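Our consortium's second objective concerns turning raw sequence data into structural hypotheses that experimental partners can test. To show how far this objective has progressed, the report includes one record in full. It was chosen at random from the queue rather than selected for favorable results. The single chain below, 196 residues long, was entered without modification.
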Amino acid sequence: MNYRAAKQFIMKKLRAELSDKLRYHGVHHTLDVLRMAGEIAGNEGVNRREMALVKTAALFHDCGFVKNEHKGHEMVGCQIARENLPEFGYSEDDISAICGMIMATRIPQSPANLLESILCDADLDYLGREDFKKIGQTLFEEFTEYSILQDEQSWNRLQVSFLSSHQYHTETNKALREPVKRRYLEELKALVATYQ
């Protein structure tokens, strides 16, 4: 399994093919998820092979956005992984594990094992970080760009609903991110309570 070559391939593809309209789901998001997946996996004690699989899944998890559609991008990402990873020495089992991780990130998240839990938590790590508002703003801009949402009140209501139902899956993020996420939820609930 040649992780470095796979990384080089997918980063080149993302840089060339992702739309500028993707304010949140851009290369910066993939790199953030990659970094956090590595950190969480390290804290959760995975072995070297599992680390390579998690990091590969992080790199490919949103590559389906090259089709410039939000709906079904995970399935497209798996297709891209299945078509390309064999040439980098990934086995069928490796690719199935990677696709399992990618599909687990669909909302609502549904991880079935530790590696899937790690990728899910890495994908939404920012919900419990200090850069929550800054990153959230880019998702709001993207949603308005794609006419998924029209205004800030709808966005804040969506955030309250999403944060209320979201849960972290790894022990790492339950400890590190959950308390901060709860604080943001309370702030947003107070704001939404002021709306007519």
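The partners drew two points from this record. Residues 9 and 42 are 24 Å apart (CA to CA). The chain has a mean pLDDT of 97. Both points have been shared with the crystallography group to help prioritize constructs.
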